[in-house]
Amino acid sequence: MNVKIDSRKIEKGDTFVALRGIDHDGHAYIRQAIENGAAKIICEEGSYEVETCIVEDTRAYLVNYLKDTYYDKISKLKLIGITGTNGKTTSAFLLHQMLNKLGRKCGYIGTIGFYVGEKIRSLANTTPDIYDLYAILLQCLSLGCEYVVMEVSSQGLANHRVETLQFDYAVFTNLTQDHLDFHKTMERYALAKQELFRMLKPSGKAIINYDDSYKHYFLLEENENVTFGFTGGDFNVALDAADKEHTEFSVQCPAFTQNFSTNLIGTYNIYNLMASVVILTLEQFDSATIAQAAAALTLPKGRTECIHTGNNLIMVDYAHTPDAMSKVLTAARALTSGSIYVVFGCTGERDRDKRAKMSAIACKHADYVIMTHDDPHYEDQAQIYHDMTSGLSYDNYEIVHDRKDAIRKGISLLDTDDILLILGKGHEEFIVCRDKRIPFNDMNVARQCLSERRTPTAARICQSA
Ligand SMILES: CC(=O)N[C@H]1[C@@H](OP(=O)(O)OP(=O)(O)OC[C@H]2O[C@@H](n3ccc(=O)[nH]c3=O)[C@H](O)[C@@H]2O)O[C@H](CO)[C@@H](O)[C@@H]1O[C@H](C)C(=O)N[C@@H](C)C(=O)N[C@H](CCC(=O)O)C(=O)O
Ligand SMILES: Nc1ncnc2c1ncn2[C@@H]1O[C@H](COP(=O)(O)OP(=O)(O)OP(=O)(O)O)[C@@H](O)[C@H]1O
């Protein structure tokens, strides 16, 4: 595309469209765009030495341009949008994986990046803005994709990032507290997500978690709705058996009754897998083929990612909402008769109201909790700890300010069969503190702390040899 919205990416002869964003205004970068070689500027005001076209609303101009120029092409893709508080990345990543396994080339767009089988690149947002989105969808087409599954965040919907797109499937995973700093109330949060269900193609289908108490926001009369759940729904699930390595469940629907055995653990991951089971069924795959594809799956990076060390398990997980914490702690409890330790912190400048809830859940379900920092952004860390601990009616916790020290402390507490959960940052590679991005990955740090712990022993063995 030689029409661009980022001055830093302008090459000689390009057209620059100056967009007014939330924090930045593209009009401030017109000079830079011209210096980089822009031959034409589309903006709302100003006069420049290159060809300039003044329009009333640059964003509306861009949206129409993308739609008129590329929509016919990208509408050939089967587009699946997944929304909900938790499980978007996992559900989308599993579906992308299963479609590719079954020989249907599929792209994935979401929190962990842009993938077509392999990772192609990281993304700044879970749901990229319309310009990036069109570019990615065009790339999916050129890579031969038939399907694209994307996470659609509530901020993405509220900020019109998926404008003009029409979906073949819209999936609702669940709704629990998060992002209330942005939406203010659960009602507005639900309504923001509901928008996805008004963006279906005429032949599109809505796939909805029947067990979620907010399902009514997503079961719109005008849509063809297909539900799944343990308590009912068109695809009714029953848990048959579960151990540390496998989960067995069965699904009953009008078309079939099928047993599944998967390497995924935690009931919440069965919910995540069910979105794929339903969509693959609607795409005419037979149930035995779907069950076969579900037998061995890889979870996205940072979701229940494990280090097995002696009799202990160290698990890094992206749980950063009260519901996710409760789900992952329940799953861990089922895996051991030993103690459970948790290291976690709360993000700064995000939903303050969930902090105390997360602490209460951690202290209730774990034996001992080490609170530390997450990404403070520009917020005072002392304020974050205050929000995490005020009114807390438990005393099985301590605060260890440095996240690496907290992880080291968690590891030092492990005794036979104990589990350490390091929560909140999952796949992330940085700690964001003020304007700094400090390299930090929970999994790498846990490995480093483990090897430090082993080194003295190894040294003793070497000395005595
Ligand atoms: C507060 C917020 O939502 N900000 C989003 C917003 O930024 P913005 O409006 O300030 O715009 P901008 O893109 O930085 O700048 C405006 C224009 O100036 C241009 N520009 C800018 C700089 C420059 O040097 N040259 C230049 O030309 C930009 O290319 C753009 O055209 O638009 C950008 C482009 O879409 C987003 O990347 C950015 O998301 C920020 C990074 C963010 O953190 N957003 C969070 C709240 C978010 O959206 N999160 C959800 C996930 C939630 C979840 O599920 O957990 C998400 O979907 O990612
Ligand atoms: N279906 C689910 N219900 C509740 N919790 C879940 C579910 N699936 C995953 N989780 C928990 O939530 C965490 C985040 O999962 P995932 O990344 O799939 O969700 P997400 O909706 O993409 O989150 P985000 O929007 O913040 O990126 C996981 O690490 C796990 O602890």
TrEMBL record:
Q: Which InterPro entries does UniProt cross-reference here?
A: Folylpolyglutamate_synth_CS, Mur-like_cat_sf, Mur_ligase_C, Mur_ligase_C_dom_sf, Mur_ligase_cen, Mur_ligase_N, MurE/MurF_N, UDP-N-AcMur-Glu-dNH2Pim_ligase
Stretches assigned to the Mur ligase C-terminal domain = 302-426
Q: Where does this protein chiefly localize?
A: cytoplasm
Which pathway does this polypeptide act in? Answer: Cell wall biogenesis; peptidoglycan biosynthesis
Q: How is it modified after translation?
A: Carboxylation is probably crucial for Mg(2+) binding and, consequently, for the gamma-phosphate positioning of ATP.
The record's PROSITE patterns line, in alphabetical order, gives:
FOLYLPOLYGLU_SYNT_1
Protein name, as recorded: UDP-N-acetylmuramyl-tripeptide synthetase
The species this protein belongs to is Wujia chipingensis
